[in-house]
Write a structure and sequence with these properties.
The structure holds three protein chains of three kinds. Chain A is α+β, with helices and mostly antiparallel strands. A five-stranded mixed sheet of chain A has the order 2-3-1-4-5, with helices on one face. In chain C, the strands form three sheets. A five-stranded mixed sheet of chain C has the order 2-1-5-3-4, with helices on one face. In chain C, strands 6-7-10 form a three-stranded antiparallel sheet. A two-stranded antiparallel sheet of chain C has the order 8-9. Classes of the chains: A alpha+beta, B alpha/beta, C alpha+beta.
């Protein structure tokens, strides 16, 4: 995709209005960068270079500073995410109870590395440093729904059901 | 709203509550929600509607009750009888409870938790006193339990200096890990000069295995807000920020609702409770960086920058947000404030032991029967927490170690089970109180592997500003990896210890200087395990793979392969 | 400005209120190794090489940023401190690729000088062998990430002295990298003014002038203080 093409797409994108509205509400304060990035990621699913350039220009911030902030925090992603997401908690309680095996199983069976998205763009597999549901250890979330205690096979079955479900719809 | 109106509302709420003959409180904390408590609430509400919504009955979706592994939990409150708690309820069972009541039959005993369960009996709930009793999204219920009364008292009866003195007298210390005297901190900010002052609640709970702050923010958001408002009055700040970890969307949403309701009620916003004090609170959502739990990094993050710590002094109390004096306390610390003034500083100080006063909330998890959120007086021996409240390890398995303080803490061995849990004693053992994660480990856990787990966490969360933390943590991680896969050499253990001391002594911030603690404490208490990995190439717990040969054994290995190939006539 | 007295390496010295330990030490010709520190730039305290021992402090403190105080007892060297400094240099050498023999900065590199001075003759830690890229897209200058020690002198000078803020850091921890604008090739940067300050202040061969021989690579750093003094003079004239 050429830069010019992406640029025209961004300017016409209705989602950009959400970001612009957020910046206006925050009075274009440079200090509000992280909140603006939260809104931008919520609206677009990820932060493209063009979007970051737009935010930098509106908040009158150096582009490199915006880029530095966007890449410092693990919440922000510069690449599009998969249609569905599965996040396995690897906090201490989950680790002690075997969340590593769940990650290995999912990586192996679904052909995707943790932190990445499957080739067909259907699923992003992620790990988290404690989602604060330690009593459910080992736990995971699938599209923000919490499951636990979970087994490697159980997790795989749940993810497969989800992926098959979305295939049927499409 | 005036103070008299607040008292009136509280009384009205109480009368209404007392008029109910049966109240069903369904725990809607995240773990219980995951176990299906939403369906339980829906089924109960439907049943109520079908029976014509009798005024004497009520169903409330509450915040976290504590024993999270037993969810969904339903508390039955009946006039004149002690509360009954049912565990693992499904919608049918819950409806059966209602049916039994409506048919005037005795309530079923199935799934009923024994009344004298040590899990509840041994706890002392100060911060969590209304968690699990009220609907966190209903400010009136909080007020009905005496909420915002402490704020009213402080605003109308005390000077800011008196408030600071009260907090000092209570002996409260920071619950985020450091353990600095909260009262002294308040006094510092109060005396600080600046055009503006700020109050910040640190809810960036990043320790893996800890969720006290999340539960508090989700289950009783007004308690945190009330504490912040009192702090604002005491130090002279009109603006507060509450920094919520990005992984906790429910907490952020409930706080948002709480702030809106509190402003409508006039207990926050301009002219709080008809006084001259104004206080606004804004939420800031974290974006996934453990280091933002460090106060200077947190301030950078609130100001929209990379969450990197800076050297102190100046401390935030002198120069914090936008160069102004800023008070930063942990969410749980703020949760203690209202109680200090309702019960009185002296009464608060009578709880606890030694220099550690009050209670502490722990997230008890790992290999223990009753996982969940507990609050105990400071100084309770570890053994009582794990065996009485936690019910010991599943299947009566042997206890090996308890990890406190997350990646900044250490492991406490079985020989120290009788240690009172307070700031000083934990520090003596090479661990820290931390924010309150308490993870129990049995014989199946390998201490070297646990140390490696925490070091991986630290290297991933290092901000990269200073060299020892940025590069030292990854080198420590590699040494631990070698120990775990069997390829370590004798000098690796020596280098490991040296590196740990370097990182501890020379890192810029608390994250870095505490990063080696899990290694140093396991090296201290479980050195035999490290040596077994190194000299015998054996993992006593059977966790580590040990499938890589150390370099110095390579020559021998090659020779063996050559000899074997000669004998078998095959090329190797 | 009031004067204070402190003990520096067992000798009583006087200093002005507000001076850092490093400034006092330099005035008294006591050498404290530094890397990220550069007079004229805001202190960062990141390299931890200038750590010194202060009596009563549980941990060593960074001399570049810690203010000297009345009655302070400072030791700028000790067995522990020297060992720590050595380890830090070793960690830096292990972190990225610092092969002096093939480096443009060979012979006039601050990291190399530090290593020689501290007697670092081998590195006892694992080389991380990061395969990093090189950016030679700018007409006059080039950036080699393999030689970068993340002292951030370039970031600080570009922001505070030149005012362009072309440079910043992406990522965190060991994956931190210097980036220009939105991580574009330096040659495509629109904010960069080609002033070359960052190149002159870079302590290693990470930022260098293209087409210069190793002999010509000696970097001139005096311009920074001259520039800042001129600025102060102009500001004084305006106000």
């Amino acid at each position: 995709m050429s830069e010019h093409h992406e640029h025209t797409v961004l300017a016409d994108d209705p989602r950009l209005k959400l970001v612009d509205r957020a910046m206006k509400r925050l009075q274009y304060q440079p200090d509000a960068l992280i909140e603006v990035l939260h809104t931008a990621q919520e609206s677009f699913g990820f932060l493209s270079r063009e979007l970051l350039a737009h935010v930098a220009a509106c908040l009158k911030l150096p582009e490199s500073q915006v880029f530095g902030v966007a890449t410092f925090y693990h919440f922000f992603t510069l690449r599009p995410k998969g249609e569905h997401s599965c996040i396995v908690c690897t906090g201490t309680a989950c680790y002690v109870k075997g969340s590593g095996e769940i990650v290995h199983r999912l990586e192996k069976e679904l052909q995707v590395r943790a932190g990445q998205t499957t080739a067909d763009g259907k699923l992003s597999l992620g790990t988290a440093r404690c989602l604060g549901n330690c009593s459910l250890a080992p736990m995971l979330t699938i599209d923000d729904q919490v499951f636990g205690p979970e087994t490697p096979i159980g997790a795989e079955t749940k993810v497969r059901q989800l992926l098959e479900g979305s295939d049927d719809k499409s | 709203m005036t103070r008299a109106e607040l008292a009136e509302l509280a009384e009205k709420e109480q009368v209404q509550r007392d008029a109910k003959k049966l109240r069903l409180l369904v725990c809607c904390g995240t773990p219980c929600l995951a176990a299906g408590s939403e369906a339980v609430v829906a089924a109960l509400r439907q049943k109520l509607a079908e029976s014509g919504s009798p005024a004497e009955l009520e169903v409330v979706g509450t915040g976290c009750l504590g024993p999270c592994s037993r969810g969904p939990l339903v508390t039955v409150q009946r006039k004149g009888t002690p509360d009954m708690v049912y565990e693992r309820m499904d919608p049918q069972q819950a409806v059966a409870l209602l049916d039994a009541y409506l048919a005037a039959a005795s309530l079923p005993q199935q799934n009923l938790l024994p009344e004298d369960l040590p899990f509840f009996r041994r706890q002392q709930r100060v911060v969590l006193q209304t968690c699990g009793l009220i609907d966190p999204e209903d400010i009136q219920q909080y007020i009905g339990h005496g909420g915002y009364e402490a704020l009213a008292q402080v605003l109308h009866e005390m000077t800011p200096e008196e408030v600071c003195d009260g907090v000092t007298a209570s002996g409260l210390r920071g619950r985020g890990g450091g353990g600095y005297s909260t009262g002294l901190k308040w006094q510092l900010v109060q005396k600080g000069t600046g055009s503006r002052k700020f109050v910040v609640a640190n809810g960036d709970e990043g320790d893996p295995g800890a969720y006290m702050d999340r539960s508090l923010m989700e289950s009783d958001p007004h308690r945190v807000l009330e504490g912040m408002a009192i702090a604002g009055y005491a130090v002279g700040a009109e603006q507060g920020y509450i920094y919520v970890r990005g992984e906790y969307p429910l907490a952020a949403q409930r706080l948002k609702t709480a702030i809106r309701d509190a402003e409508r009620m006039g207990v926050l916003g301009s002219r709080v409770l008809d006084s001259n004090f104004s206080f606004r609170v804004d939420i800031r959502i974290g974006a996934g960086a453990f280091v933002c739990g460090e106060e200077t990094a947190l301030l950078a993050s609130i100001m929209g920058r990379r969450g990197q710590p800076r050297i102190r002094p100046p401390y935030p109390a002198q120069s914090g947000l936008w160069g102004c004096p800023t008070l930063i306390n942990n969410v749980e610390t703020f949760g203690n404030i209202a109680a200090i003034f309702t019960m009185g500083p002296a009464a608060f100080a009578s709880i606890g032991s030694g220099k550690s006063r009050g209670t502490k909330v722990f997230a008890l998890c790992g290999e223990v029967c009753n996982t969940g959120l507990i609050e105990v007086p400071m100084g309770m021996p570890l053994r009582e927490i794990i065996y009485d409240i936690g019910g010991g390890l599943p299947g009566g398995a042997a206890f090996k170690a308890a990890q406190t303080g997350g990646p900044s803490g250490g492991c406490i061995p079985a020989s120290k089970l009788d240690t009172p849990v307070d700031y000083e004693h934990l520090q003596e053992l090479g661990s820290i109180m931390g924010s309150g994660g308490l993870i129990v480990m049995g014989e199946k856990s390998c201490m070297v592997d646990v140390a490696r787990f925490f070091m991986e966490f630290c290297l991933d969360e290092s901000c990269g500003k200073c060299v020892p933390c940025r590069t030292g943590t990854i080198e420590i991680y590699r040494l631990l990896t070698r120990l775990c896969n069997g390829s370590a050499a004798a000098r690796d253990l020596e280098n490991l210890e040296k590196l740990c001391h370097l990182v501890k002594d020379t890192s810029l911030c608390g994250l870095g200087s505490a990063a080696p603690n899990p290694v140093l404490s396991t090296l201290h208490w479980f050195r035999d395990e490290y040596e077994a990995h190194l000299t015998d190439r054996r993992c006593p717990a059977g966790v580590c793979g040990m499938d890589v040969k150390p370099l110095h054994l390579m020559a021998e290995e090659l020779l063996q392969r050559v000899v074997a190939s000669r004998v078998n006539g095959e090329a190797f | 400005m009031s004067a204070i007295t402190l003990t520096l390496n067992e000798e009583l010295v006087t200093a002005r209120q507000g001076q850092t330990i490093l400034e006092v030490a330099r005035e008294h010709s006591i050498h404290i190794p530094t890397l990220c520190y550069l007079e004229g730039l805001e202190e960062m305290g990141g390299c931890r090489l200038c750590m010194v021992e202060v009596q009563g402090s549980a941990r060593p403190v960074p001399a570049c940023i810690t203010k000297a105080q009345e009655g302070m007892v400072v030791a700028t060297d000790s067995e522990t401190i020297t060992e720590y400094r050595r380890m830090i240099v070793e960690l830096l050498l292990a972190e990225r690729n610092h092969t002096c023999a093939v480096c443009v900065q060979n012979g006039s590199c601050e990291l190399q000088t530090l290593a020689a001075r501290l007697g670092v003759d081998h590195v006892r830690f694992d080389y991380l062998h990061q395969q990093l890229s090189m950016d030679a897209s700018r007409e006059r200058f080039a950036l080699d990430h393999n030689r970068c020690v993340l002292c951030l002198r370039c970031v600080r000078t570009c922001d505070a002295v030149e005012g362009a803020h072309t440079w910043d850091v992406r990522g965190r921890g060991v994956t931190s990298r210097i980036v220009a604008d939105l991580d574009r090739p330096w040659g495509e940067s629109v904010s960069c003014t080609d002033c070359g300050k960052c190149v002159q202040l870079c302590p290693t061969g990470a930022l260098f002038r293209k087409g210069a021989t190793v002999g010509e690579m000696v970097k001139e750093r005096e311009f920074l203080m001259r520039l800042l003094e001129r600025r102060r003079a102009i500001q004084g004239r305006q106000s």
